[in-house]
Amino acid sequence: MKTICKTALAFAAAALFASAAEGGSDKKGSLKQQVVGAWTLKSNVLDQGGTKTEPYGSDAKGSVILTGNGRVALVITRADLPKFASNNRTTGTAEENKAAVAGTIAYFGTYTVNEPQKQLVMRLEGCTFPNWSGTEQKRTLELSGDEMKFINQAPSMGAGLITVTWKRVKEGQTTASAAQPK
Questions:
Q1: Whole-angstrom Cα distance, residue 17 to residue 45?
Q2: How far apart are CA 159 and CA 53, in angstroms?
Q3: Please, what are the domains in the chain?
Q4: Cα(91)–Cα(87) distance, rounded to whole angstroms?
């Protein structure tokens, strides 16, 4: 019985040590290693001289995927975008097209992480805001546990500062909101 207890105690101590050594997602590896994964939108707040708004609405939807080999893809959209009456995206009315453009942002490309400056540096290959296609976009990064913030000092909607907060999508979840409501 003593041997079983000692073995169980040794196993428990080893498991505890391994768990502590691995740490939370905010403590393992470099900043680049910490950002890798799928993230879902928690909030998107634009601050223009102290006036705060949510340009995609309070119930905006979004996802960003940062791969281990340096690829990025991001989509943010208003939840209340009006459907096109024609059910054909190429024949939308001027109003429908304007709502779709103003109510979404999507881009893809490559990224690196500037560790000392805590910055995500993206080189955009394509973007729904054409002015950003072919440009380098920088975001200040803040990570805490399973939450990541992009802070953008040059948002696509003009002057101001936009803070986009993301929640990590854990393996086996369809979205981060499946674990916790906003």
A1: 40
A2: 13
A3: 25-171 (2.40.128.280)
A4: 8
CA-wise closest residue to 66 among 30, 104, 109, 128: 109
Dihedrals φ, ψ of 120, to 5°?
Answer: -95, 125
Contact criterion met (CB below 8 Å) for 75 and 60: no
Cβ-based neighbour number of residue 60 at 10 Å: 21
pLDDT digits (tens, 9 = 90+) for 66-76: 999 999 999 99
Helix and strand numbers, DSSP H then E, in the chain: 3, 9
**Residues 62, 56: Cα–Cα separation, whole Å:** 10
Residues 93-102 pLDDT 10s: 999 999 999 9
CA–CA distance from 116 to each of 66, 70, 149 (Å)? Answer: 19, 18, 17
Tokens 């072919």 belong to residue: 134
